[in-house]
Structure formats: structure tokens, C-alpha cells
Write a structure and sequence with these properties.
4-stranded antiparallel β-sheet; mainly beta; 8 strands; 141 residues
């Protein structure tokens, strides 16, 4: 079998997010039900590189501490457990709205080459009031 001997370069940057803040808890262990947040979708033809996911608390209110779970989906329905894998987790701290202090921002390094059509979803384990927004940053091949 011959391996690819040519370097792979990003064709164009790719930044993706859902338009809403995630506030609802999802306690499933396999992503098959509950509230999920689509953070990134790989290019349908060539795939994509996902460098990191930025996690930003809403400045409009307070949040309790929770854990964010990051799932890789093979591009098929999330309702089938075999299509999803738990990739990583990140503890998100409690946050307080302020007019004088920046609200918490965190990043999860991913550094994964995603095959065409693969998706990255996020869930949180505890319901929060103001919510979190997740932005995937990478590039299309």
C-alpha cells in the first residue's frame, strides 16, 4: 500500500458555532438523546482539521459549574450510539455577570483531522442559567 507522500495544507479557514447558548443539561452517556449543540462539521468532500473549540460563557447572566462533553459523530444520526464517541471533557467554572470583569473563556485543544461529513457535538452535564457558546476553529482541505 502506497502512503500519501504529499503534505496536506488547509485550503480555507473554518469557524463554526450554533446561534444559541447551550443551557440545558444532557446526562446521556452516548449522545443518543437530550439537548446537543453542534460545534463543527467537517467539509463534506475533503474533510476538515479541527484545531480547537473555544468555550465562552454568556456575559448576560450567571452559570453554575458544569462539565462540557465533546463528542465526535461519524456524520450519521446521533440517535445510534455506535455513531458517536466521547472525545474529551472540560470542567466549565461557575461564572458571574459583571460590567467590570471579563467573563470566562476557555479552549479545548482538539487537533484532529476529521473525515468528510464528521461532526463535533457538545453537551453539558448540569443546567446553567446564562449558557455557554462553543466555537469550532479549524480549516477545510
Amino acid at each position: 500500500m502506497v502512503a500519501n507522500t504529499n503534505p496536506v495544507f488547509i485550503r480555507v479557514g473554518q469557524i463554526e458555532w450554533d446561534s444559541t447558548y447551550l443551557t440545558a443539561a444532557n446526562t446521556t452517556a452516548d449522545l443518543t438523546s437530550g439537548t446537543i449543540y453542534l460545534a463543527f462539521t467537517a467539509d463534506p468532500t475533503e474533510g476538515s482539521y479541527l484545531q480547537y473549540i473555544r468555550c465562552k460563557a454568556s456575559p448576560g447572566g450567571n452559570n453554575v459549574q458544569t462539565v462540557a462533553r465533546f463528542w465526535i459523530n461519524d456524520g450519521d444520526v446521533t440517535g445510534t450510539a455506535d455513531n458517536n464517541t466521547l472525545f474529551d471533557e472540560l470542567t466549565l467554572p461557575a461564572t458571574t455577570a459583571s460590567s467590570t470583569t471579563a467573563v470566562t473563556t476557555m479552549s479545548l485543544p482538539v487537533n484532529v483531522y476529521l473525515p468528510p461529513g464528521y461532526r463535533v457535538y457538545v453537551t453539558i452535564a448540569t443546567a446553567v442559567a446564562a449558557g455557554w457558546k462553543f466555537t469550532g476553529v479549524g480549516g477545510k482541505y
